[in-house]
Automatic annotation (TrEMBL):
<protein>
    <submittedName>
        <fullName>Pyridoxamine 5'-phosphate oxidase-related, FMN-binding protein</fullName>
    </submittedName>
</protein>
<dbReference type="InterPro" id="IPR012349">
    <property type="entry name" value="Split_barrel_FMN-bd"/>
</dbReference>
<feature type="domain" description="Pyridoxamine 5'-phosphate oxidase N-terminal">
    <location>
        <begin position="2"/>
        <end position="94"/>
    </location>
</feature>
<dbReference type="Pfam" id="PF01243">
    <property type="entry name" value="PNPOx_N"/>
</dbReference>
<dbReference type="InterPro" id="IPR011576">
    <property type="entry name" value="Pyridox_Oxase_N"/>
</dbReference>
Length: 131
């Protein structure tokens, strides 16, 4: 499903966006770095996700992950399920300029990709790619 071409594109992009929703369907969008292809059907995304993102995926694991090239505005949207989360770093709670409520834990999300669509700021069909 995640072809070599798509994998190279993903690895070349600096930022990725993750859309999650709570149990009632209220959406939330987060951005992070370090999106990697684990295998032909899984993405791994690591970031200092806010509490809302982690709360959402613990109750509703369905997400959309989007990567775009800033120059062209073109990229991909991956719909799937968060199958695993892991804490990868924890702050000690001390940072002089830190605001209350800021994330203290860096998380890794493993997302099983169920569908891939082209993503564009221009005209597009929203039809799944036949990969």
């Amino acid at each position: 499903m995640l072809t070599e071409e798509i994998s190279r594109f993903i690895e070349s992009i600096e930022h990725a966006f993750v859309a999650s929703a709570d149990e009632s369907g209220r959406p939330h969008l987060a951005v992070g770095r370090d999106l990697h292809v684990m295998n032909s059907s899984h993405l791994v995304f690591e970031a200092w996700f806010c509490h809302k993102t982690m709360e959402n995926v613990s109750k509703n694991p369905y997400v959309a992950v989007t990567v775009t090239a800033s120059a062209s505005g073109n990229g991909y949207q991956f719909s799937g399920v968060v199958e695993k989360t892991a804490e990868t770093a924890i702050l000690d709670g001390y940072a002089p300029l830190e605001e209350p409520g800021m994330p203290q834990v860096q998380y890794r999300l493993m997302v099983r990709v169920d569908e891939i669509m082209e993503f564009s700021s221009g005209v597009h069909t929203d039809q799944p790619l036949g990969v």
